[in-house]
Amino acid sequence: MDWLRVAKELTVGQSVRVQHDCNPSGARSLLISHEPTGYRAHCFRCKQPGMWEPKKLSLAERLELAAKQREADQQINRTSPPPGPGLYDWIGWSMPALVWLLKAGFNNADATACGIYYHEASQRVVVPYQGTHHWQMRAVHAWQKPKYIADKNPRQCVVLGDEVGGPIHLTEDLLSAYKIQLSGLRAMPLLGTSLHDEHLALLVRKDARVVVWLDPDKAGRDAAAKIVRRLRVFGLEVHNMLSDRDPKLHSRGEILRLHREIEWH
């Protein structure tokens, strides 16, 4: 299999899944991608190393690439439903998009359950906030700016996994909230670091215990402290979860262990 020849026949951002020489069953275990900065192949069966061929882009080519990205981003309507068409089957995803989700412990079935898909036109991963009209698009290439594009619809919020009961975990981003939901717990993303009136009203109405679990950087820690104080003013029982990683980067077992170790006062 001349994977490089196949990769060069693809358009930028396109991927294809084919049979690899290591796989006698005929299963398509080799993902071949044409990325803006090079050609890549990855076999999910044998993990053969070294299947990467960088492209030497001139300054003009880099500027053209950035211009095309800005044009694609500008065509996204941020007051409408998430942009499409979307690729839900990982066969068509670019390798960086797959890596971003795999690092967070998501498989194809998890992504499908959460409605997550790949938007080939913008080369971003789309994460919808199920039950609302909100969504986020995540850049997966280092050259893409900004990292996130989000909708500008009127604010809505729901609790993910609400049917299981128990404490509600507040997170910064959608993927962290989905990771907690997939662990069998309740979660609500703030889509940032601010607790808005809509979030507060829902939490007060549910009268549940609240776990504030924001990212471990300074901005997250400072915001979490403010949120905890505000929630306690309204009589809610609150725990500030201080971990060394974003919630989405913890395994499901770690999430459940940290949840069990909470000492409520």
Can you offer a commentary on this structure?
With 265 residues, the protein is an alpha/beta fold. It is built from eight helices and twelve strands. The strands form three sheets. The protein has a four-stranded antiparallel beta sheet with strand order 1-2-3-4. It has a four-stranded antiparallel beta sheet with strand order 5-6-7-8, with no helix packed on it. The longest helix has 16 residues, at 59-74. The termini are far apart. The chain is globular, with a radius of gyration of 21 Å. It folds into three domains: 3-54, no CATH class; 59-150, no CATH class; 162-260, Dna Topoisomerase Vi A Subunit, Chain: A, domain 2 (3-Layer(aba) Sandwich), CATH 3.40.1360. The model has no long low-confidence stretch (mean pLDDT 90). A hairpin with an 8-residue loop joins strand 7 (135-139) and strand 8.
